[in-house]
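Incident log, entry 3
Record: Phosphoglycerate mutase-like protein (476 residues)
Problem: checksum mismatch between cached and fresh output.
Input:
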Amino acid sequence: MLLLPFGIASAIRDFLPSSCGPPTASNNLFVKTPSMLLQLICGFLILIRGERVSGAITFNTSAGIYNSSQTPSSFPWNTYNYCNAPHVNADHYSLPVNATKGSELVYMNVMMRHHKRTPDNLYPNENELNPSAGWDCSDFIQENYGGGTARVFHEVTIPSWHPFLSQIWNGTCDAGQLTAGGLADAVQHGKDFWALYHTKLGFLKSVNTKDILMRTSTEDRTQQVAGGLLFGMDHTTAGKSFPLVTQPSGIDSLPPDYSCSKANNIRNAYQSVPAWTDHLEENADLKARLDATLGTAGLDAWSSWYDHFFDTFTSRTCAGHPLPCNSTGACVSQADTNQVFAIGDFEYNYIWNAAQNSTTYTQLTFGVMFAELAMNFKLFQSGGETFKLRFYVGHDGSMIRLASGLGFGKVAPLRWPALGSEVVMEVWKTSKGEHFVRVLHEGTPVQTLEWVGIDEFVALLQSNVPDNLFEQCNSS
Ligand SMILES: *[C@@H]1O[C@H](CO)[C@@H](O)[C@H](O)[C@H]1NC(C)=O
Ligand SMILES: *[C@@H]1O[C@H](CO)[C@@H](O)[C@H](O)[C@H]1NC(C)=O
Ligand SMILES: *[C@@H]1O[C@H](CO)[C@@H](O)[C@H](O)[C@H]1NC(C)=O
Ligand SMILES: *[C@@H]1O[C@H](CO)[C@@H](O)[C@H](O)[C@H]1NC(C)=O
Ligand SMILES: *[C@@H]1O[C@H](CO)[C@@H](O)[C@H](O)[C@H]1NC(C)=O
Ligand SMILES: *[C@@H]1O[C@H](CO)[C@@H](O)[C@H](O)[C@H]1NC(C)=O
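Fresh output:
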């Protein structure tokens, strides 16, 4: 495995000849062609990118924070932080370079991932792989009551006598539950958003249901994050009602959750070729070590990809928990954890962005959401939009598809969308009355979408909506 510090990796990337092109079978360190030097440089770069070189697969184990919501001040503010992605904020915001005098912000859509949570996946013997106190979720109240009735809330209890105790940690948390730290991050996210779009730019005047539409998935964690955001924007919202728009879970376009067998078949096919299977084979030693410590050997969900290991490690490290240690005292090592993090980035980029046919997969599975976004911007163009802001709180699956469809993956490989990952789509009106869209990803303007005509942006969204989506999804 090649371990390169971030600075060196990016320095080498800057040497990349533009003629490197996509990796091919001959694009390795040992070809004997006249353009050997170029091949060598390209091969080295591919090595850093985490692609295949002479049968060895390595990963870009580069910069990233995975153990705290606070990025240390010694790192750039917009460093990838899996625990709490950078987001738009007044200190690091600049007006669009192309905005001429008299241009004003007139409309926006935002999509983000929820904040920190407990692991979504459980080891077969989950209990022993946690500190004895387990997970604490007693520090904020889980309310969920029928309007006009008693304000009931629920508390998770995990009785010590429960015969199935081995399958869950101790404490007061369910799987996939937003933690108090995640709620605090959501509040700060809302505060930063408001400091920019209200205080600095004066675009949003107040938090009200006429100007702001909040849409979430059906999960408690996205809804609680929406509440945290609103509270961060305006503390007087505490205890007040605010509607969240959701779709039925079976057809929800946001996570997304509608079924599409054609998409599944396409993905299965590109996860059956060497471009995918090689990385599983090459990391067999790592997998064997993890299985031995965590009791996951022979389980499909843990062997077809590294998703579950990634989730169970990051959820722990982001919450300040130790890496899992089993009852014989053996722990997952930091080095193996770093490798899992790098593989996670590789897998997300491959599945949703880089694989042959991944574009089709992304479009089939997120086409309904792209259609909804296109409708929003067209409604705005037609003068029929009543909201100033439509704010979506979804999941990593929402963010990776949006990032891929908007073409972010053509600029640089996509990484696993961090907790709180954010895409902001701003519409600006020039003094001549023209509308331009500017997109920001994790608080930073996206190179290719810094100033595009609204028609062009709508066309980009619509280009991700397959024809006859329902029929296609149900064909083979
Ligand atoms: C490796 O990671 C760094 C830090 O995230 C990133 O800037 C760089 O583009 C990556 N390099 C490649 C070739 O993917
Ligand atoms: C968290 O990660 C950073 C960056 O990798 C590292 O420098 C730091 O020591 C880690 N902190 C803890 C408490 O593990
Ligand atoms: C934005 O400004 C740059 C630099 O002035 C210019 O080259 C570019 O054409 C402008 N883009 C648009 C869409 O107006
Ligand atoms: C969790 O609690 C049970 C019951 O009190 C205890 O037997 C078990 O050892 C605890 N788990 C850990 C990892 O300490
Ligand atoms: C991509 O789709 C085409 C057309 O269906 C198919 O021939 C090809 O094998 C697919 N590629 C992968 C890697 O699955
Ligand atoms: C704990 O992990 C070690 C090292 O991977 C392994 O040898 C041992 O069998 C594991 N113990 C249990 C109880 O899973």
